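Dissemination and training. As part of the outreach component of the grant, students in the summer workshop were shown how a complex can be specified as a set of sequence lines and then modelled as a single object. The example used during the hands-on session is reproduced here so that future cohorts can follow it. Participants entered these lines:
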Amino acid sequence: MGNVVVVGSQWGDEGKGKIVDWLSERADVVVRFQGGHNAGHTLVVDGKVYKLSLMPSGVVRGGKISVIGNGVVVDPWALLSEMDKLRDQGVDITSETLQIAANATLIMPYHRELDALREDATKGVKIGTTRRGIGPAYEDKVGRRAIRVCDLQSRETIEARLEVALTHHNAVRRGLGQPEVDGKVIADELMTLAPQILPYMHNVWRTLDDAQKSGKKILFEGAQGSLLDIDHGTYPFVTSSNTVAGQAAGGSGMGPRALDYVLGITKAYTTRVGSGPFPSEQDNEVGQYLGEKGHEFGTVTGRSRRCGWFDAVLVRQSLTIGGVDGIALTKLDVLDGMDELKVCVGYKHKGEVIDYLPYGMEDQAAIEPVYETLEGWQESTFGARSWADLPATAVKYIRRIEELIGVPVALLSTSPERDDTILVRDPFQD
Ligand code: GDP
Ligand code: IMO
Ligand code: MG
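and obtained this result:
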C-alpha cells in the first residue's frame, strides 16, 4: 500500500481528471507536480461538470489536502479566477485544504504575450500551444530569472526580481518590435494580489513528508502526457516540462522512493491537440466519428482534437519510459458501434518495420503505421460498471491492447461520470 502517480500515456486529455477524482476517495493528499493552466481536467459528478486547470482534481471531493507543487508554473490571476469559479460551484477551498509551494514559479503577463507572439509569428515552428505562457515561464525558471510565490512577500524583492526578468524580456520585446513592459505596473498588480495568494503558501515538502510519515496516502496528478514530455515527447511539438512519473518527486519535494505505483491514463484510441507528428491520425470520416462521439474539443482552448486509431507502439514506449505499473483505459464506449477497429503495431521506416518512434523530425514524418485489424462491437458499453457487462469483442480488444503494451489494465472508464469506472486492481493496494 502506498502512493500513486497518475500520468497521461499519450498526448494529454486521456481522462486524468476523471480518474484522479475517482481515486482521490482513497487518498488524503492530491498533488500537481508540473505544468500549469495549460491543463484542462474534466470531472463529472452526478451530472455536474467541473473543469480544473491548476487546481488538483481532489479538491472537488472535499476533506482532502490539495497541493500545487514547486514543479508547477502558477499564473496567479488564473489561479484566483479558478478558485472563484469553483467556489461558485460549491467547492470548499481554504488555506488549510489548498497549499501552494513557496518555491513554485509564477507566470507573468509578459510570458503569455511572448507565447502568443511566437505562435502568431510567420517564421519558425508553430507548436500550437495553449498560449498560456507556459513555455516562457519555464524558460525563465531555468534561466534563473523567474519570480516565485515566496517573492510575493515583499515589494522590494518583487522589484528586484522584476528588474532581472525585464532586462531580458524588454530586450526580447524590443527585438520583436513590441513596447517595453513597465516593471512598476506589474509590481503594483502583484502587490494587490499577494494578500490573496500568500495565505496558501507553504513548504509543501514538509507537508508531504509529514503526510508520508503519518501513513497518509498521496496521489500525484500529472498534466499533459508522456508524448508531450520535453525530453521524451515528439520534440519540438511538446510542452515545456517533464510530464513523466519521475517528475512527481522533483516537482513536489519528495524522494523517488515515495512513488509506489504509476498509473498511466490511456485512451482507447488516440487524440492530439496542436501541431506535431501523429502516425495513426485519421483525417477522414473515422477521425470525425471519434471526435464527435468522444466530444474531442479542448477543455482549455476549445480547439478540435485530432483523432486516430490506438497506437500500441507509442503507448508501449511511453509506459516503458515512465515505469508504468498499470493503465486506466478510458473512453472505451466511444468505440461502440464501429464495424472494425485498427491498432497500430509497428512503423514502416526506410524499408523495414520498427517497433519504436525515432527521435528525428524527418524520421517521424517519414514513418508509416502498420495496422492490425480487430473486430468491433455493436453493443453499448457506455456506463458499464462491471466487467461482465462488456461484450466479448470489447474484452478481446482490451486483452489485445494489454498484450501489445505489456502492461495490465487496472481501471476501465466507460463514461465521463465519476462512478462509471470498473476497478480491476486497486493501485493503492498493489
Ligand atoms: P484530462 O486532461 O486527461 O483530464 O482529460 P480531459 O478532461 O481534457 O478530456 C477527457 C474528456 O473525456 C472529458 O470531457 C471527460 O469528461 C471525458 N471522459 C473521461 N473518461 C471518459 C470515458 O470513459 N468515456 C467518455 N465517453 N468520456 C470520458
Ligand atoms: P491535459 O493536462 C493536451 C499541448 C498544446 C501544444 C503543446 C504545447 O489537459 O492533458 P503549451 O501551452 O503547454 O506550451 O503547449 O502541448 N498541450 C496539451 N494537449 N492536453 C493538455 O493538458 C495539454 N497541455 C498542453 O496543445 O500542442
Ligand atoms: Mg485535458
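The two ends are 6 Å apart (CA to CA). Students were then asked to discuss how this feature might be tested experimentally.
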